[in-house]
Write a structure and sequence with these properties.
The complex is a heterodimer of chains A (about 270) and B (about 180). Chain A is α+β, with helices and mostly antiparallel strands. Chain A has helices at about 5-30, 35-110, and strands at about 115-125, 130-135, 150, 155-160, 165-170, 180-185, 190-195, 200-205, 215-220, 230-240, 245-255, 260-265. The relative contact order of chain A is 0.12. Chain B is globular, with a radius of gyration of 16 Å. Chain B has one domain (about 1-175): Arp2/3 complex 21 kDa subunit ARPC3. By secondary structure, chain B is mainly α. The chains are: A alpha+beta (about 270), B mainly alpha (about 180). The interface of A and B includes residues 134, 196 and 258 of A.
């Protein structure tokens, strides 16, 4: 009566309807936990767990051991970067310090009404007994013998020899150096002579002269070498011997000669 | 032999540059002595009179030009060390390390003594320098023989290299 084709179609429709009906019934009993569920769970989940644990183990191995090679490489790279950054920081710090020193020199340059030439200290005296330094400016730059050399703190010394590109400067702390100077507060005159690396002698200060510790000593300008008013140092020690015409006075130079790097040569 | 003189002249110049720059920083200043003294001692012991004295005088002249002291001071000191060591070496075994040590120590101390006299150092300066002088003398006595040995090896190597053969260099006292 029915063709085979029609019978198949009817069967499919029937199955679909049965399926929908079953799904509807199942939907009504949602989350129902049957024995089948338990069996399946008991049979399958341990394997799942095993596989998952293995995967985690492998993942952990990878991250904690094999992947550490990459971490090590990254660590080395970061260490290199850190060292580079520290070097750079050191360079910046050095530049900043140089900037501060040069700023002080510039301030000094604007205070002293003379034509000045900046120079860098490039060498020191080979012996500890004599106090000279070499600067990187010479006759080619207009430097000649007798010119005064100053730094941000005060007087450094005078040029005692110059070649085309370099000059030798006798520091005020050398035994053979002498500056005509006066005490800024009382105008008492004397001669500042080199003694040791830390102090100079302030000679020919008469006994009655009023001077105190920490009084500033400046150049008098009468020696024809150093312009008047340049700072030399501060009085650090005064003694009045029972006999004699003069006081024994020591002056601590304002310039730190152990850290002398940049100076100014007074060209006029 | 001219090459050897040039070699020592270059070594001396390097020492001069080092001790007017890096060795003058406060860290080394108190300890490092005049490095040309072991060189002068070595030249006195190993080079013929004329060649040796020529190198010594040139190096002394350079040091005098760089120094703020009396001109001719270094030149005189090196010259007299050269002559003194030459005469002393006739009576003592110059290969003996203790002798070399004493020799260099005495030379360094003598140099300081002459400097001290030349600047007419007052008591304050003397007091400031005494520690440094003693340290330098001791350091010179300790390291001087080593420097002499290095210079001897340098000369042997230089001679071997310049002759192009592995022949034995037999004329040098210190190797």
């Amino acid at each position: 009566m029915f063709s085979k084709r029609l019978a198949r179609i009817l069967c499919v429709i029937l199955f679909v309807l049965i399926n929908i009906a079953l799904l509807s019934i199942s939907a009504k009993h949602l989350h129902r936990y049957t024995i089948v569920d338990r069996v399946v769970m008991a049979g399958i989940v341990p394997f799942q767990e095993g596989i998952t644990r293995t995967m985690h183990f492998c993942e952990s191995m990878w991250h904690h051991y094999f992947y550490l090679v990459a971490v090590r490489e990254e660590c080395d790279r970061l260490k290199g970067m850190l060292a580079g950054a520290q070097m750079e920081k050191s360079r910046y710090l050095e530049s900043e310090l140089a900037c501060q020193r040069l700023r002080k020199l510039l301030e000094m340059k604007s205070e002293v009404p003379h034509r000045m030439l900046p120079a860098r200290v490039v060498g020191l005296d080979p012996s500890g007994w004599f106090k000279t330094v070499f600067i990187n400016k010479g006759t080619g730059d207009g430097v000649s013998n007798g010119m005064a050399v100053i730094a941000s703190g005060g007087i450094v010394g005078r040029v005692i020899g110059a070649s085309g590109r370099y000059a030798k400067v006798l520091l005020i702390i050398d035994r053979s150096s002498a500056i005509d100077a006066l005490v800024q507060r009382t105008r008492s005159r004397g001669i500042v002579e080199g003694e040791t690396s830390e102090s100079c002698r302030f000679k020919y200060i008469v006994r009655k002269a009023d001077i105190k510790i920490e009084d500033t000593v400046i150049s008098s300008g009468l020696d024809g070498l150093f312009p008047k008013g340049l700072r030399v140092g501060a009085i650090s020690e005064i003694s009045r011997p029972s006999s004699g015409l003069f006081q024994e006075v020591k002056v601590r130079p304002f310039v730190d000669f152990t850290r002398l790097e940049e100076v100014l040569v007074i060209l006029e | 032999m001219m090459k050897v003189s040039c070699l020592y002249f270059m070594v001396g110049l390097s020492a001069v540059v080092a001790q007017t720059t890096i060795l003058r920083i406060p860290l080394f200043h108190a300890v490092f002595y005049d490095l040309l003294i072991p060189l002068v001692v070595f030249l006195s012991l190993n080079l013929p009179d004329k060649k040796g004295v020529l190198v010594v005088l040139i190096l002394g002249l350079i040091m005098d030009l760089l120094s703020g002291g009396i001109f001719g001071l270094y030149l005189s000191i090196y010259f007299w060390i050269f002559l003194w060591v030459k005469s002393v070496s006739k009576y003592f075994d110059v290969c003996d390390t203790i002798f070399q040590s004493v020799l260099i120590g005495v030379c360094v101390f003598g140099q300081h003594l002459i400097f001290c006299i030349s600047v007419a150092a007052p008591s304050q300066l003397l007091a400031a320098q005494t520690g440094s002088v003693l340290l330098q003398t001791i350091f010179a006595a300790l390291t001087g023989p080593g420097i002499l040995m290095l210079l001897g090896r340098l000369q042997t190597r230089f001679e071997t290299h310049s002759s192009g053969t592995e022949r034995e260099i037999g004329n040098y006292v210190i190797r």
